[in-house]
Specification:
Structural class: alpha/beta
Shape: globular
Strand content: 25-35%
Number of helices: 4
CATH architecture: 3-Layer(bba) Sandwich
CATH superfamily: Ribonuclease E inhibitor RraA/RraA-like
Largest sheet: 10 strands, mixed
Radius of gyration: 14 Å
Number of domains: 1
Helix content: 10-25%
Oligomer: single chain
Distance between the termini: 10 Å
CATH topology: Glucose Oxidase, domain 1
Number of strands: 12
Length: 160
Amino acid sequence: MDFATADLIDDFEDELRSCETQFRGFGGRAAFAGQVATVRCFRDNGLVKKVLNTPGEGRVLVVDGAGSLASALMGDMIAGAAVENGWSGVVINGAVRDVVRLRELDLGVKALGSNPRKSAKDGVGSLDVPVEFGGVRIASGDWLYSDEDGIVVATRDLLS
């Protein structure tokens, strides 16, 4: 998959929504893209774990953790499951942990920051609901493209 978000903006500006949130890259893949699945949760990664343990088929999981950095919503074990299940990437509006190990995985990972504290595992939250952060509304079924310049979202696959 060869693309640059800046080039996508130049070619498809009217179709793209550009996320203003300044995420940090934590995964082994600097650039990643795919159709979106969403999770909304707060300091509980039970649903994140559940979803990333299903076939990813090249998709990107977008997690709205309400911007909380109080506990991590994903660490190396859940990210490892994402790799094994064929996910392209994970974007977390919140924190991750095990950042040294995340860099070694063939997975795109963007998050606000890191915290070694684990989250609750009760599975509280919502699946496949629209989420919004950085001035962008993201829904399951959208297409997300991420690289070092940032994140853009479209309603269709712009690379096929």
